[in-house]
Amino acid sequence: MAEITLISGSTLGGAEYVAEHLAEKLEDAGFTTQTLHGPLLEDLPLSGTWLVITSTHGAGDLPDNLQPFYDDLDAQRPDLSNVRFGAIGIGSREYDTFCGAIDKIETLMKGCGAKTVGETLRINVLDHDIPEDPAEEWVGSWINLLKNEQ
Ligand SMILES: Cc1cc2nc3c(=O)[nH]c(=O)nc-3n(C[C@H](O)[C@H](O)[C@H](O)COP(=O)(O)O)c2cc1C
């Protein structure tokens, strides 16, 4: 089955744990995965399926380890019409800019022609001590969508 590239952006490690947990679930479902924490654009295949998981820091900003990816995407605007992607944001409702980072990435990726699969999940850490739990539930539905599209 298809390979899925998991991309995480994190400052404190939470989004990385979620990415690793979801990679296991995807492997259990028969996909192959590669998980990249804070990759550069040049590290990524410009086709296939991506799952982007990022927290938000600053005031609606990307984590430092994913900012170079975003900046390169914005500067180079590669053709992503052969990329389909799922998106998960992790943030806190305490901030007006709740899950601002995933919103920015999603907007930019769509602007480059990438297609979303499924609704973006926004996890409020005030409601979920263990963000892996809502992420795992979401990925079950996402897997069904991917399999139906194949
Ligand atoms: C300094 C600081 C700024 C933050 N700013 C935002 C924000 O603008 N929007 C948001 O939704 N969450 C914000 N958060 C909450 C984090 O996204 C949340 O704690 C998340 O679980 C961190 O995940 P990580 O461990 O992957 O970095 C902020 C947290 C900190 C410590």
TrEMBL record:
Sorted alphabetically, the keyword list is: Electron transport, Flavoprotein, FMN, Transport
Domain of life of the native organism = Bacteria
Q: Name one Pfam family in it.
A: Flavodoxin_1
Required cofactor(s): FMN
Coiled coil located at which positions?
none
Which parts of the sequence belong to the Flavodoxin-like domain?
A: 4-143
Give the matching NCBIfam families. PRK09004.1
Q: What is this protein called?
A: FMN-binding protein MioC
Q: Which organism is it from?
A: Siccibacter colletis
Q: What is the lineage of its organism?
A: Bacteria, Pseudomonadati, Pseudomonadota, Gammaproteobacteria, Enterobacterales
